[in-house]
Amino acid sequence: MQYDLELDAAVDKIKSENASLVCIQLPSGLRPKAAEIQRYLESRTGARILIWAGTCFGACDVPLHIEKLGVDLIIHWGHSKWR
Prior knowledge:
By secondary structure, the chain is α/β, with parallel strands linked by helices. The protein has a single domain (7-76), classed as Diphthamide synthesis DPH1/DPH2 domain 1 (Rossmann fold). The chain has two helices and three strands. It has helices spanning 7-16, 34-45, and strands at residues 21-25, 48-52, 73-76. It has a three-stranded parallel beta sheet with strand order 2-1-3, covered by helices on one side. The two termini are 21 Å apart.
């Protein structure tokens, strides 16, 4: 199955927020693409991208204590459109 991950929109958001440390959160089905997403975002933004490898049960499942890492922005991907 092909997904439109809207990576250019993520690049625009990272740049508009001047984010230097970004956490990406992916559901299990998209995790095989994590390294590819990380390389794409880092190469186009200069930001450091962390991959959250913990569980993810939806957009409301934000990683606990992520602020202790100094993350400027969290980008969450899912399988369904956000309405």
